[in-house]
Specification:
Number of strands: 0
Structural class: mainly alpha
Radius of gyration: 20 Å
Shape: elongated
Helix content: 25-40%
Number of helices: 1
Low-confidence stretches: none
Distance between the termini: 64 Å
Order of helices and strands: H
Length: 85
């Protein structure tokens, strides 16, 4: 019987800063003309990407700490202004 292969743990980067959330545009940043994509659509996509990156970062930090996961805080957003599609 051959020995089982060693299980490798992935190397975690030394410099692994926490992702930063996107800056939410102000209501007056929207021109209200129905642009596609609207600045609020772009912000929503960036917020969703940030949420995924934050979850992955938290998982890496938990792995680094020996399995103690931190709770991921969801980012709340304001509803898009009327007319923004």
């Amino acid at each position: 019987m051959s020995p089982s292969p060693a299980v490798r743990t992935p190397q975690l980067p030394e410099d692994d800063p926490q992702p930063t959330p996107p800056v939410e545009p102000a209501l007056e940043d929207c021109c209200g003309s129905g642009c596609v994509p609207c600045i609020f659509d772009i912000y929503e996509q960036a917020r969703e990407r940030y949420q995924r990156e934050l979850e992955a970062w938290n998982a890496r930090q938990a792995q680094r700490a020996g399995g103690k996961a931190r709770k991921v805080r969801k980012v709340r957003t304001k509803p898009a202004p009327p007319g923004a599609a």
